[in-house]
Amino acid sequence: MFLLLALACAVPQVAKAAIYQWVDENGEVHFTDKPPQERKAESKVLDIAPKKSKSVGKFPTVKALIPIKKPGSAEVKSVLLEHVSIKYKDDKNSGDETVGEAFRYTKSSAEKAYQLKVNNVDKPISALACVPDGKLILNNANFFLKNSDFKTPLQDVFEEHGYAAADSSSQIFALQENTLNDLSIAAVISDIQLAYCGGRNSSELKSYTQNSTYLKVKWTVFDNLSRRVVLNTESEGVDNHIEAPPRYRGAMVSAESAFRQAAEHLLAQQDFVDILLASQSGQMETQGQGSFDETISASYGVANTKFISRTSEIEKASVTIRTVAGHGSGFVISASGHVITNYHVVGKSRELLVIVSGKEYRAHVVRSDPGRDVALLKLNQKFDAKPLLINPNGVSLGEEIYVVGTPLDERLDFSISRGIISARRSEDERNFYQTDAAVNPGNSGGPVFNASGNVIGITVAGFFTSDGGSKNINYVIPINDALDALQIKVN
Which of 149, 171, 183, 239 could be disulfide-bonded to 257 (CB atoms 3.0-4.6 Å)? Predict the structure, then answer.
């Protein structure tokens, strides 16, 4: 015990370093690492303990996920990126609002110099100054993002893995626009973190800079056919380039690269891919007047009834046809659930919704004749109401008629307008009735009735003023011509 104690006492104590400040007899101030030797000098020890430096924090990392490729020859739904924005944390939409973190790197990014090859000449550049640590202000983040192209990286990712992504639009979920895209996507950036080394002026964003970007993206997937959101999900993406050689337009390139990875990670989610691969029923059996295997029959009506007394049963068989591009009208003509409309209403749509008395039916095209502008659909579910009846007699000039359809908006379904047969016309060797009954976009494909409530034709076209007003000159396809084109028998 004595030996151990002696050894412990033999270990010299480490003196704590100190700086002494003192004033000599002449009033001069001195700084020394030892106490002053002058007896009259008063001194004080200065605190030289180093201050803790502010922690820069660690830039986020994201585990790379492998996108799911389109399987084989499977058909997929087309996608449109319609909207990209940053999430506001309150309703004030203040430009000073904090939306994320800005990081500063003081290691190699600020100390290294790089050789850039400009015009085939090695041109040295000095180390770049970095943005200090702190909160990322919304206006600054928006400035980076509004100059970034997010459409292209998303399109590239989708196409590289076998999917279709269309051009983007400035509007979000523009349902009434003429788009053939099955799905629309809104991307909301809910978290953004940036590291930036380069010039501070806005013009410098188009110079060589070093950047890292982290994005968390909330995706909203909207089905343009069912008119509803089918998926809410999120993914992350990162581009860590802060210690690599500077890039031209580095801030935008970094944001676009991070968004690209977020898009890849969206395609790595099975729930999203399942939506892209959802059943695409409805490939047309044929176009034109070929032969059809299935025999489809409609029924004649009688002449001793009144349209006004039959409106209830007519309403149950008059339909609105919704496509991803908009809507049109149609009517049920067989007990098996066959629906007639215009070809230009359905076009090349693979999936359709037929809305009858507020109930939605999935449907597909089974026959069509683009030249005669008629198409035949088949409901994928059982239809319980009675089909409409066909006029057994001829049509006379001046005869009173009724047009039924869904003009302009789906909420205006089963709208009735009245007029007369104004003339018989022939265009491109095809027959039409001309009528003064009111017709608007959305009426296409709807049934036209005589005073007995029997179908005499199908609304197909009209003449309008430059501001969309009707000129009361509208065309109707004779029902017998439509039935012949679609090879439908009438009993």
Answer: 239
Q: What's the confidence (pLDDT) of residue 237?
A: 97
Q: Where in the chain is the domain with CATH 2.40.10.120?
A: 296-490
Torsion of the alpha carbons at 132, 137, 143 and 148, rounded to the nearest 10: 80
Candidates 1.10.10.10, 2.40.10.120, 3.40.190.80, 1.10.357.10; CATH matching 296-490: 2.40.10.120
First to last CA, the chain: 121
pLDDT in tens, 69-86: 998 888 888 898 988 988
Record the tokens describing residue 86, joined without a space: 């940053």
Chain-wide mean pLDDT for the chain? Answer: 79
In one letter, which amino acid is 64?
A
DSSP state of 128: P
Q: How far apart are CA 343 and CA 463, in angstroms?
A: 19
Chain segment 359-418, per-residue pLDDT in tens: 999 998 999 999 999 999 999 888 888 999 999 998 999 999 999 999 999 999 999 999
Q: Give, as one character, the DSSP assignment of residue 130.
A: B
